[in-house]
Amino acid sequence: MAVSMHCSQTAVVGSAAVRSVEVGVVRSGSRKVCFSPFINAGVRHSVQNGKRFIAGSVSASSHTKRSGSVRMGYTESGPTVAIVGVTGAVGQEFLDVLTDRDFPYRDIKMLASKRSAGQKMSFEGKEYVIEELTEESFKGVEIALFSAGGSISKKYGPLAAAQGTIVVDNSSAFRMDEGVPLVVPEVNADAMSHIKLSNKKGALIANPNCSTIICLMAATPLHRHAKVKRMVVSTYQAASGAGAAAMAELELQTKEVLEGKEPTCNIFNRQYAFNLFSHNSPVTGNGYNEEEMKLVKETRKIWSDNDVKVTATCIRVPVMRAHAESINLQFETPLDEEKAREILSQAEGLIVIDDRAGNNFPTPLEVSKKDAVAVGRIRQDVSQEGNHGLDIFVCGDQIRKGAALNAVQIAELLL
Ligand SMILES: NC(=O)C1=CN([C@@H]2O[C@H](COP(=O)(O)OP(=O)(O)OC[C@H]3O[C@@H](n4cnc5c(N)ncnc54)[C@H](OP(=O)(O)O)[C@@H]3O)[C@@H](O)[C@H]2O)C=CC1
Ligand SMILES: N[C@@H](CC(=O)OP(=O)(O)O)C(=O)O
């Protein structure tokens, strides 16, 4: 696996920390997966009005911990795990997250399409051969992490569950199905408390949409305190949400445009570099696109609250792998910004970066390859009376907390 570096820059977190950022592309076979190692994730950074402090800890990123040569999670008593879509952007991230979290496993099956079958890959010091996904793939598999698109999940998810496998599915195939828990572990772990490996019974569990996960990581602690009545979300979504090929095309287009060439437009059928556009998911009958409606419907299911009003506008921006979201909240009971900042700084999986004096707030680069979702721009909404409204701005790594990390956290709840 060769690593090519493309640029390095300096960034400032709050007033004190200065770290170097390297943005690069890992080449694995014909695929490219971009990464951006950044702030040390071993501590939870919090910057409030120019004052930086450390509160608690979040798990280390792959770049601080991964050795690549030791079978860290291997244990005879662990479950047999399958990764469906292992060659994809999310599939590769699954492997990083499993290592970072020392997820226990006895064996791992690496599954992808016929195109990849037979290719070799190494993970934690052992060589694996990628197998073609078939109906026979789940024999003896206790946990399957699916990330190969909705149609694959629809075909193989129920089949695996019927054979006794607990499927954690990253697609939207089953999210709104009654009886299928839709889980963000920090928010509603109780929704899947009846599903355990020890039951020796197959099941389907759905991983929410990445924009929904990132949004609810910050909105939920505030919702618990003052009950959200209405939420207005505007997203700035990265290339990674459209898969490894979209990431590669953003990189290619950027080079082409800088060289004065016509950009290659295979993924979105338009120029993406130096541009932005409405999210590429189909626009539905009510004028919302599917990504926007996922934020509406999934929030209601995760919060078990059919009355909460949600509206969203989703935009694709030329950022490699972390989503940003502006969120306006209306509360049933008053909540002032100081209290909100305190609540958010104590919430699991969040870091607060809210440095007004330095005009320094969360950025996608800062959270890339990081577990934590960053929140800032915490301010009273001046258009709402009596402290009933707040604005916040969040950034979260789309492939990590928005997909692979959330799914692995779900898998941990099964043990
Ligand atoms: N929770 C969330 O918000 C997110 C969910 N996702 C879900 O994950 C899916 C994959 O995303 P991503 O990794 O970014 O996409 P990629 O395009 O990077 O990867 C797709 C993966 O699916 C595999 N695949 C495709 N067709 C088949 C097949 N017929 N049988 C078996 N495997 C197949 C590919 O294998 P091969 O290399 O052999 O073609 C590859 O491993 C998305 O379609 C979406 O459903 C993604 C991002 C976020
Ligand atoms: N939310 C991803 C797309 C995606 O994979 O969504 P879902 O998991 O809901 O299909 C994006 O940024 O475009």
UniProtKB/TrEMBL annotation:
Gene name per UniProt: LOC112282327
UniProt keyword annotations, A-Z: Amino-acid biosynthesis, Diaminopimelate biosynthesis, Lysine biosynthesis, Methionine biosynthesis, NADP, Oxidoreductase, Threonine biosynthesis
Pathway: Amino-acid biosynthesis; L-methionine biosynthesis via de novo pathway; L-homoserine from L-aspartate: step 2/3; Amino-acid biosynthesis; L-threonine biosynthesis; L-threonine from L-aspartate: step 2/5
Oligomer status and interactors: Homodimer.
Documented EC number(s): 1.2.1.11
Protein name (Swiss-Prot/TrEMBL): aspartate-semialdehyde dehydrogenase
Superkingdom of this protein's organism: Eukaryota
Domain Semialdehyde dehydrogenase NAD-binding: 80-195
Pfam family, one: Semialdhyde_dh
Active site: 210 (acyl-thioester intermediate), 323 (proton acceptor)
Family: Belongs to the aspartate-semialdehyde dehydrogenase family.
Any GO molecular function: NADP binding
Keyword Amino-acid biosynthesis: yes
Cytoplasm keyword on record: no
Organism of derivation: Physcomitrium patens
Signal sequence range: none
GO biological process: diaminopimelate biosynthetic process; isoleucine biosynthetic process; lysine biosynthetic process via diaminopimelate; methionine biosynthetic process; threonine biosynthetic process
